[in-house]
């Protein structure tokens, strides 16, 4: 990853989700969020990324902040991923 794309605010033990949309030679940042690394399993890191891509590809449901929050674990408790999201990522 080029240095210009690294997040200067990223702290150790955090994940940084960035979604940029490409249009006519330009990238426009659509979403940027930091979450604690310990709150997402390896599987859910992939699933949240897929869900965010689907959201920006045309899905008119939850906003990106809500999507990320839905996948964060509650320190051992059950996730509350809405069925509308889980249907896209299976």
Detailed description of the structure:
A hairpin with a 2-residue loop joins β1 and β2. The protein has one domain. The mean pLDDT is 80. It is built from three helices and two strands. α1 packs antiparallel against α2 and α1 crosses α3. The longest helix is centred in the middle third of the chain and has 16 residues. The protein starts with 13 loop residues before the first strand and ends with a helix. It has a two-stranded antiparallel sheet with strand order 1-2. It is α+β, with helices and mostly antiparallel strands and 90 residues long.
Output mean pLDDT.
Answer: 80
Instruction: Give the SSE order as H and E letters.
Output: EEHHH
Span between N and C termini?
A: 29 Å
Which term fits the overall shape? flat
Report the radius of gyration as a whole number of Å: 14 Å
Biggest β-sheet: strands ordered side by side in the sheet: 1-2
Task: Note the beta-strand portion.
Answer: 15-25%
Q: Please describe the biggest sheet, giving its number of strands, its sense, and whether it closes into a barrel.
A: 2 strands, antiparallel
As for the number of domains, it is 1
Helix tally? 3
Oligomer state equals single chain
């Amino acid at each position: 990853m080029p240095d210009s794309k690294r997040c200067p605010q990223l702290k150790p033990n955090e994940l940084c989700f960035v979604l940029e949309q490409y249009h006519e030679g330009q990238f426009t940042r659509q979403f940027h969020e930091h979450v604690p690394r310990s709150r997402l399993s390896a599987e859910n890191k992939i699933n949240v990324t897929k869900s965010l891509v689907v959201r920006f590809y045309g899905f008119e449901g939850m906003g990106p902040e809500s999507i990320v929050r839905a996948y964060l674990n509650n320190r051992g408790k059950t996730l509350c991923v809405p069925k509308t999201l889980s249907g896209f990522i299976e």
